[in-house]
Write a structure and sequence with these properties.
- Helices cover 1% and strands 50% of the residues.
- By secondary structure, the protein is an all-beta fold.
- The protein is globular and about 70 Å long.
- Strand 28 and strand 29 form a beta hairpin.
């Protein structure tokens, strides 16, 4: 398995493909730059979230260990109705370092930000959780006027914050090489029924681990992706599964952990950065790894519900592919597009050339999807010199929004840019703005919904409703719908669907159409 097809690994593709390109109608020539606040000299994105109303929420770390959260309109401009002129910012004081780690948005629009703070030279960490209303003002219903401070075990490092259907929060990270999870009630109080008095700590039998990202899976389980660690080096791929109780799932991998060290050389980097849990209990995770004599490659794998590699995915369960062997390919995001494919979004670093954005498209079987000209990788440069981290999300019009940050550049401190996609992936035709072929109204809806089709289906479609995690909340047996004409459908959503954001998916044998809906009863 260790060879994994060196032809694929060593394959070099140029950046001449033009079917994945900046949308020149977005911002100015495809990019929208943002200034200040004045005291901030640099920034880089930590999270980027697409909101149900089409706006975007960006969480950024800033100079002097500060942070800011900004809300943006559909064209990338800052939304002046949010916080102060579109920006909520916080600076660290001289005695304590405060690092922004994650951000999440609940179905009610409230925003939760997770920080880790500590005094210089101290091993003691404190979690700071802030919750604000949709307009950026502190949420008075959350503990002490929107703020919770929580003492953590020594050397704790939190990386993700998850919001459950009941509004409760789960903070996920590591402490001393073990997986750490903490659960809070919706009002910010510790959930003492979770783990041991609200805290769950689980060690992997294969050795100490680090964590990059956690997400909810089916039935309230949590999947966490990261790495096996040897000192400061990430030397293996790791996925952990926690039950809703906070304990590891013993039926997954080895005592709740999948760990794979692809190259035994401890100096070769290997880490999973992001993941996508599926509704059937399987999970796709992606990151990067190095091989002997070859720099970091994009790396993706699929695990079955039992935590073992899926042999039908890519080469024995794993995909390893990259640009030139001397290039360094680092993953930032694994993005699932409702049209049925994944985007591996990251950075390519070439000696003597600034870091540029790198994109790779794959299907659910781990096969690389070339564009119409046969190209696999897309490499896109920025108009200035951005910082290394960047984030990307799909928008509601079939395109993608990318966030970047800058260091002491006159153009600004952050930017949003939009890319559009207009090419064929295998048998899937993906025109720009394909989501426009399916219109839903009213949106938000109280349960009664009208669907207008720009083009009729050639075959009878099936309809499902998915939550933001890709879990099916309604199917043909629970949805009441009927054609009211060749181009329109009337539908009643079941009362069991709670308020929040969902994806409406219509599928036939030859096509798949999606629309985003917001339920607000």
């Amino acid at each position: 398995m260790r060879s994994l097809g060196l032809f694929c690994i060593l394959l070099f593709t140029s950046a001449k493909a033009q079917q994945f390109v900046p949308d020149l109608q977005f911002g100015s020539e495809g990019i929208n730059f943002h200034q200040g606040p004045a005291e901030i000299t640099s920034a880089w994105p930590v999270e980027l979230i697409s909101l149900p109303n089409g706006k975007y929420l960006m969480a950024s770390s800033t100079s002097n260990n500060g942070s800011m959260i900004s809300r943006h309109l559909t064209n990338g401009d800052r939304d002046s109705s949010f916080a102060l002129n579109g920006v909520w910012s916080m600076n660290s004081n001289q005695d304590q370092i405060r690092m922004l780690r994650a951000m999440a948005v609940g179905s009610d629009g409230r925003i939760v930000a997770l920080f880790v703070q500590y005094s210089p030279g101290s091993d003691q960490r404190t979690a700071l959780i802030l919750r604000v209303l949709p307009d950026g003002q502190p949420d008075p219903s959350f503990h002490m006027n929107g703020e919770v401070q929580l003492a953590l075990p020594d050397l704790a490092e939190l990386r993700s914050i998850l919001i459950g259907p009941d509004g409760g929060l789960v903070l996920v990270g590591t402490t001393n090489g073990t997986v750490l999870a903490v659960r809070l009630e919706a009002d910010g109080q510790m959930d003492h029924t979770y783990g041991t008095d609200g805290i769950s700590i689980n060690a992997a039998s294969m050795g100490p681990v680090g964590l990059n990202k956690a997400k909810f899976g089916p039935d309230g389980a949590i999947f966490a992706a990261g790495f096996l660690t040897n000192g400061l080096d990430a030397t293996g791929s790791m996925v952990c599964k926690l039950l809703p109780s906070g304990e590891v799932d013993p039926s997954f991998g080895t005592d709740g952990f999948f760990v794979h060290d692809h190259e035994e050389n401890v100096f070769l980097h290997e880490s999973l950065v992001d993941l996508w849990p599926a509704t059937d209990g399987s999970v796709i995770a992606a990151g990067q790894l190095s091989l002997e004599g070859i720099k970091e490659r994009f790396h993706a794998l699929k695990l079955g519900p039992n935590g073992a590699l899926d042999p039908d995915f890519a080469d024995g369960g794993m995909l390893i592919t990259g640009t030139a062997p001397t290039d360094r390919n680092f993953l930032m995001d694994l993005i699932y597009d409702q049209r049925g494919f994944f985007v591996l979004h990251g950075v390519i670093s070439v000696q003597g050339v600034q870091n540029r954005s790198l994109f790779l498209f794959i299907n659910g079987q781990g096969e690389v999807l070339p564009d119409d000209s046969g190209e696999s990788f897309r490499v896109l440069s920025s108009p200035d010199v951005p910082r290394f981290p960047r984030r990307m999300v799909p928008d509601q019009e079939g395109g993608f929004i990318q966030a970047m940050g800058y260091f002491q550049r006159p153009i600004g401190r952050t930017s949003l840019s939009r890319f559009q996609l207009s090419w064929s992936l295998g048998n899937m035709t993906l025109p720009v703005n394909s989501a426009d072929r399916l219109h839903t109204w009213p949106n938000p809806t109280n349960g009664s919904l009208r669907i207008d089709l720009v083009e009729p289906f050639q075959q009878q479609p099936t309809i499902t409703v998915l939550d933001p995690l890709g879990r099916m909340v309604a199917d043909q047996s629970t949805l009441h719908w009927s054609f009211t004409g060749e181009h329109s459908i009337a539908m009643e959503l079941p009362s069991s669907i709670a308020d929040g954001r969902y994806s409406l998916v219509m599928t036939s044998a030859s096509e798949r159409r999606t629309a985003h809906i917001v339920v607000q009863r």
